[in-house]
Amino acid sequence: MSQDTAGGGAPPPPAQELKHDAIGFVDALVIGLNSTSPAYSLAAALGPIVALVGVYAPGVMLASFVPMLLIAAAFYYLNKVDQDCGTTFSWVTRAMGPWAGWAGGWAITMTGVLVIGSLADVAVRFGLLAAGLDSAANSEPIRQGLTVLVILVMTAVCVIGTEMSARVQDVLILAQVFFLLVFAVVAIWKVYAGTGSLESTEPALHWLNPFGAGGAALTGGLLLGVFIYWGWESAVNLTEEVKDSATAPGRAGIWSTVVLLVTYLSVGIAVVAYAGPAFLAENADEEEAVFATLANEVMGGWDWVVLLAVSTSALASTQTTIIPASRTALSMARRKALPDGLAHIHPRFRTPDVSTWWVAAIAIVWYLVVNQISENALFDSLTALSLLIAFYYALTGLACALYYRRHLTESVRNLFLIGVGPVVGSILLGWLLVESVRDMADPENSYSGVSWFGLGPPLVIGIGIALAGVVVMIFWRLRSGIFWQERRGVADPDLVHGTAPARDSRKED
């Protein structure tokens, strides 16, 4: 591939290559699913969504799926012509230039730093609750110590090898899906049998109408709904390690969003039907309300099954969330956008060991420091995730249309699937980004309920991360300008038309 076609970048030496063909399509699909932490996402978001839109919560989750599917299509087509584990970083750099690409890479890396500690904390808390160790779950020293241990173990699994990571994920997703399905089936059965202990109501088709609750409520619900799908792109970050790397990772990403939609609608309808909107709205501020409190109502003495589903969900996501952050850091280091040390590949396991351990270390420090402020401050840092996620997803959608711009008019399919669809997805996410900023500006909308510099803590955290990124980017630009010499380009026609063999595009810059 010529440099003026795909953007610059010197080919990496063999020592910087990950292990090829380590996993297959199914493994990538499982990792994409687990990265979203379905059970935990439902536990954390379903209550607040119901508080906003009532029984129309399933409809909001359905509407939230639309921009995710459009962006997943962008990931598919961009991966088809550039199999780089840096995904958004690499693609945006090629389509929009190094400054935009670096910003996208920073956003992906920082999402991992913000969320890994919280996910591990949830895995520990719900695991202890499932074991009946409530006092240990409520002890901060015990919980935080175990959380750090979980992060270290999951990081070691990531370093030891992608195959081992995939095997662990296979077990965790089977356990999680089984527990969720048992919960949903029992809940629906009790609704129709009339044996539920809460104000149950039979499901209705109009629950799938996202506009049923009105415009303002829909906006707030979408802000929550979109981000319960976040994480599926971890499958694409493994592109250099997946068999059939030109298409399998992208297909895994798309199918992940579809499977998530079915899961969320099934469990969401079951929960709303069994508990009723009043119960869920009253407990919207309690993450454990849906799958901890409600688990006992539905399952009785078997409530540990649901608690374990949330624990395995968060545990799986702890591991898989390390993947995009570490692979993006690796890709950036290979392209001289970050220090060379982060591009080190373990000689035996063929994984990015240095970048993986760095991501884990920073995530642990963030988790412990923010927890010293308050647990609410940790939740505020998670709220700030929405800004970073919307930003790099929107960038990816625009990059898809720009990188394929010479091919959009070749067919109606190209125009809508590669051009219009991703751009519409980017516009929707851009709108949600603006709405998020407005919402976060009010301190009363935060978990802490306090003001930082006259703004809500989540917005301050988001701005702080952005400014830190600008400082690091400028510093590295002044120290090493190699990456910033790369030029924008367009997709290789041979790859677009399938006349060239699939290959790792990093090697042919």
Write a concise keyword list for the protein shown above.
mainly alpha, disordered C terminus, 20 helices, 0% strand
CATH architecture: Up-down Bundle
Quaternary form: single chain
Largest sheet: none
Mean pLDDT: 84
Question: What is the compact description of this entry?
Answer:
By secondary structure, this protein is mainly alpha-helical.
Structure description:
With 509 residues, the protein is an all-alpha fold. The chain contains 20 helices and no strands. Helix 2 runs parallel beside helix 12 (248-282) and helix 17 runs antiparallel to helix 18 (412-441). The chain is globular and about 65 Å long. The chain starts with a helix and ends in a 13-residue tail after the last helix. The model is unreliable at 1-15 and 503-509 (pLDDT under 50).
Helix-strand layout with pairing:
Layout: H1 3-6, H2 25-35, H3 38-53, H4 57-81, H5 88-96, H6 98-130, H7 134-137, H8 140-160, H9 162-193, H10 215-227, H11 234-237, H12 248-282, H13 289-299, H14 303-334, H15 353-373, H16 375-383, H17 385-403, H18 412-441, H19 457-479, H20 493-496
Helix pairs in contact: 2-9, 2-12, 2-14, 3-10, 3-12, 3-14, 4-10, 4-12, 4-17, 4-18, 5-6, 5-17, 6-8, 6-14, 6-15, 6-17, 6-19, 8-14, 8-15, 9-12, 9-14, 12-13, 13-14, 14-15, 15-16, 16-19, 17-18
